[in-house]
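Support reply, case 0932

Customer input (verbatim):
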Amino acid sequence: MMPLGSAMILAMSCMTASAQEPLPVSEGFNSFTGAGFSPTPSAGQLDSDSWVVLGLSDGAGTFGGTHTTGDFARGTSTGGVTTGGIYAFNTGGGNKIFGVQPSTDFTPGSFTLKIQNTTGSTVTGLIISYKIWYFNDQARANSLNFSHSPDNTTYTSVPALDFTTPAAADASPAWQSVMRSVTLTGLSILNSGFYFLRWTGNDVSGSGSRDEYGIDDISVQATSPEIDVQGGSPLVSIANGDVTPSTVDGTDFGAANIVTGMVDHTFTIENTGTADLNLTGGPPRVTVTGTDFSLITDASTPIASGGGTTTFTVRFDPSATGLRSGSISIANNDADENPYTFSIQGTGTATIDQVITNVLSDIATLLADPAVSEKAKDRLRDAQKALNKAKAKFASAKKQKDIKNAFANLQEGIEQLMKSGANVAGLIDDLVNAAKQFAQDAIDEAKKFAGEEEVDDEIEEAEEDFAHALQHVAKGEFDNAVKRFRKAWEHAQMALKAAGQPVLPKESEVEESDVEESEVVTDYVLEQNYPNPFSQIPRFAGNPSTKLSFALPEAGAVKLQIYDLLGTEVKTLVNEHRNAGRYEIIWNGRNRAGELVAGGIYLYRLTIERNGAAPVVMTRKLTVLK
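Our regenerated output:
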């Protein structure tokens, strides 16, 4: 019997026991000498556990039987024989085939090959190829047709593989060959189960003696799915088990802002195999881990063989700054790649004013905590006031002086937090790291224009100040660290100026004016934007941005979002906790991808979630000019 090996290729045991070949194989009969069949084959014999010959006058062969005489063992020949039976015909160049000289033998008759599935899973298809050799020396046509069976009883013929030798003999006979191949589908060969392949010969036309013919170069391969997952643009294959995310193949989602940003990546699953690929998990078919990653669109199944594809989309929506990690796992019926897994990652980012906003929210929680002393709360209120100013100035800076003042307010806020004695170490770390990142971003931008002496000198100064700031951080001198980060930022700005580049951060897509904390607000208000209409294209026509103002009589979770008239979200301008007060948000007419929106009418919606009460929702229209 012929086992289907772990590589899903037929392990051909048809030669002598010593002639078995490693996978994959395309088996010939060069070791066969026409010495018959045995379950323990000697040199030159075929294995009767695998091969059976029927239709000989010396009787019917049996699987596992010993048939080593008479018609079963006519030896070797180059053709032109007259005695019927099984031969090892030499077709030239030392090539031997498993052949027959029909006479009263093999009319009809058959060769049957028994194969076994040892793949470890059910085989649903077979790819079969073989060569037919014939020596057309007689004026009689004979057939050699292929069929197959799951039980060695009921056989299914494959007419496309039928072969008949010519009726007229060649004037100068010589060995000739034709190739035959087929893919059988819809099978169900269980693991360790058997399947049978048969070649049947018979007279077709003419009279007298018959041509010699036989088979050679038999290859049987189980059809199998082959999964390949790709990402990126252009698509790049992602290795199964990959743990090094890359932007090239889309497994590294890059940076996304923790408030306003999210990144969607679409991956493709391709089946390059010869059988349908089934995704066997779920649904969902694709499993995504990592709290900041989610499956947006699932893959479909099955995936057709020969290049069929499906896609799935994963979203990165960071909940915190820094490197965020996850993984993807796809259960499937690929024998050696189940499950298909790989790592993914993205980086959560936040502007310094967003970090301050989060810190202010935590301060508000501490101020409401009865366990915090009044003395500590006084310091926390001072910190809150300073940080509110810092936040507003960082968010709406128009001049370098605004940034310097924002740093001063930030430094003051940190000093007050340090003096409060409250459990604020984490808040201080967040603020210091935000200042550090603010300075680092400026230095990185300046380095893009290095190469001129004045630029390089300023970059060197910036890096020295940055190094000193890190030393202050190590010593716990956080206020002094912020001061040094500010100086590093200033030198980076000087480097940009020397390089002829803008010296302020690029205009943000959303700007916020100072919060009016002193005014008492008694009702929820969403005012009409001003100006309206507006043009989002600076320096060309109209106003390049518009102001959206709202007021809160009490604190709550606030969302301010832009929608088109179909209800599709265009941009989220605010998505955070806000204290009572009046707020002004500047929108420059760009969507969440940073692209200018088309001209037309849009809706802006204010939603305030309140503890123990129904949310407040208010909507107005605005117009964007082309």
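We compared this against your earlier run and they match. Two observations from our side: The chain has four domains: 2-222, 227-349, 352-498, 510-625. The chain is about 20% helix and 35% strand. Please reopen the case if you see a mismatch on your end.
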